[in-house]
Amino acid sequence: MSETTQNRQAHRVFAGVALAIMLGALEITLLMPTISRLGEMFDSPRLAPLLVSSYLFSMTLTMPVYGRLSDRFGRTPCLMAALALFTLGSLTSTLTDSLPVLLATRLLTGLGGGGLIALSFAVIADVIPPRQVGRYQGLISTLFAVSSVAGPLLGAFIMAHFDWRWLFLFKLPLGLLAMGISYWALKDLGHKGARSAPDNLGIILLLLAGIGWGLSTNTAELLPALTTLQPALLAGAIMLSLVLLVQQWRHPNPVLPLRLLSGRLLSIAFLLLALSEGVRLGLLVYLPLALEQHQGMSPDNTSRVLLWFILSVTAGTFISGKRIAHQGLCRPFPWAGGVLLGVGSLLLLALFSRWLNGSWLYVGLITSGTGIGFLIVSCSIAVQNALPSQQLGAGLALMNFCRSLGGTLGVIWLGWQYQQQLADWSTPVYGSLAGYGVVCLLLGFIMPDKELGNQAKHQPES
């Protein structure tokens, strides 16, 4: 295949998935500034935070399912189904008149949102060789960064000037447009599917275990009458999870290909992505709180400070992506990213523990952000390069699942520390973030490397 043809196909792929990625990233942060207002409008302030977490829960849970189904039935049909569910969820959200029903429609939207992220990465990996994908990683990260920043701004603007239903209504034409563009751009690109043993039991166990964890950790909000049974619900979730792990390890084509984690490269790369996502989300949530409470900054000023962090993550992805494409190896970016993240997180710990003055804030943020950017690109490319072609969709979905799960569990742990020590929470919270960073530093040094391939995993038909 000529370089011109390969570049043309790469451009088509990005045209096909760009809007899907943007919608998936935008939805994560869109409702964050509207939670308290929606809680007041529906007279259910305790349920309102679940408007965000319900979408994240459903999105994370369905990522592995989409990956496995796309290996069997093809990327484009599964992406069309995901976009249809996402759009349908947005439509039903505009028709609700109570918060419990709105939570159900958010779960439906998340069923589609999981496919938008997981399948977009899989299509890219199908068509673009691992050595060349780094050149485009900066575009993906920029799209994510812009969408993540635009989400809260757009949500606040809509709530201030329009009816709350426009939070969901404006996505209907975008969802339909994304379906049309994706079908046109990807109809003859990407994996077409292959026969394999289905893992229906694994999918059912995964969904049941996820529902069990969701109910057991939110019993007081969702099922107040069953609060006394919360320990039993938690025990049931643990048992289902253990059964799921055993079943997945034994199945020849599992929805969660856990045997991939027996390889040193993949296991370290997955762990680095999970930990770095925990630091990224932790800083996005707790940096504004620390700056407002301890340094008296206004929300506008904290947003400007946070922008330096977001831009440094994007810069790290651009730099590492270009260099990896040029040299054909992921090193030195796993260990360089680990060092930068470890040093940056320690600087932030020292700053908020009042061992350093405020002039070190930007140094810590930029260092941490650049390190996270290095890790995102180098680990993602290393995983894509190491995965067998027949498990590409499931493997990349597992990567995104681990990364999302790592971020979610990390923020839950930080939230518990915040609630335990409300008076002086910054030291334990930033101590945990520093711990994540130091572990990344150590893992980056021991992560093995492998020369990147020059062939796409699934060559498009000529």
TrEMBL record:
<keyword id="KW-0472">Membrane</keyword>
<keyword id="KW-1133">Transmembrane helix</keyword>
<dbReference type="InterPro" id="IPR020846">
    <property type="entry name" value="MFS_dom"/>
</dbReference>
<keyword id="KW-0812">Transmembrane</keyword>
<dbReference type="GO" id="GO:0022857">
    <property type="term" value="F:transmembrane transporter activity"/>
</dbReference>
<feature type="transmembrane region" description="Helical">
    <location>
        <begin position="140"/>
        <end position="160"/>
    </location>
</feature>
<feature type="transmembrane region" description="Helical">
    <location>
        <begin position="333"/>
        <end position="353"/>
    </location>
</feature>
<feature type="domain" description="Major facilitator superfamily (MFS) profile">
    <location>
        <begin position="13"/>
        <end position="452"/>
    </location>
</feature>
<feature type="transmembrane region" description="Helical">
    <location>
        <begin position="222"/>
        <end position="245"/>
    </location>
</feature>
<feature type="transmembrane region" description="Helical">
    <location>
        <begin position="395"/>
        <end position="416"/>
    </location>
</feature>
<dbReference type="InterPro" id="IPR011701">
    <property type="entry name" value="MFS"/>
</dbReference>
<feature type="transmembrane region" description="Helical">
    <location>
        <begin position="359"/>
        <end position="383"/>
    </location>
</feature>
<protein>
    <submittedName>
        <fullName>MFS family arabinose efflux permease</fullName>
    </submittedName>
</protein>
<dbReference type="Pfam" id="PF07690">
    <property type="entry name" value="MFS_1"/>
</dbReference>
<feature type="transmembrane region" description="Helical">
    <location>
        <begin position="47"/>
        <end position="66"/>
    </location>
</feature>
<feature type="transmembrane region" description="Helical">
    <location>
        <begin position="12"/>
        <end position="35"/>
    </location>
</feature>
<feature type="transmembrane region" description="Helical">
    <location>
        <begin position="78"/>
        <end position="95"/>
    </location>
</feature>
<feature type="transmembrane region" description="Helical">
    <location>
        <begin position="166"/>
        <end position="186"/>
    </location>
</feature>
<dbReference type="InterPro" id="IPR036259">
    <property type="entry name" value="MFS_trans_sf"/>
</dbReference>
<feature type="transmembrane region" description="Helical">
    <location>
        <begin position="305"/>
        <end position="321"/>
    </location>
</feature>
<feature type="transmembrane region" description="Helical">
    <location>
        <begin position="265"/>
        <end position="285"/>
    </location>
</feature>
<feature type="transmembrane region" description="Helical">
    <location>
        <begin position="428"/>
        <end position="447"/>
    </location>
</feature>
<feature type="transmembrane region" description="Helical">
    <location>
        <begin position="198"/>
        <end position="216"/>
    </location>
</feature>
<dbReference type="GO" id="GO:0005886">
    <property type="term" value="C:plasma membrane"/>
</dbReference>
<feature type="transmembrane region" description="Helical">
    <location>
        <begin position="107"/>
        <end position="128"/>
    </location>
</feature>
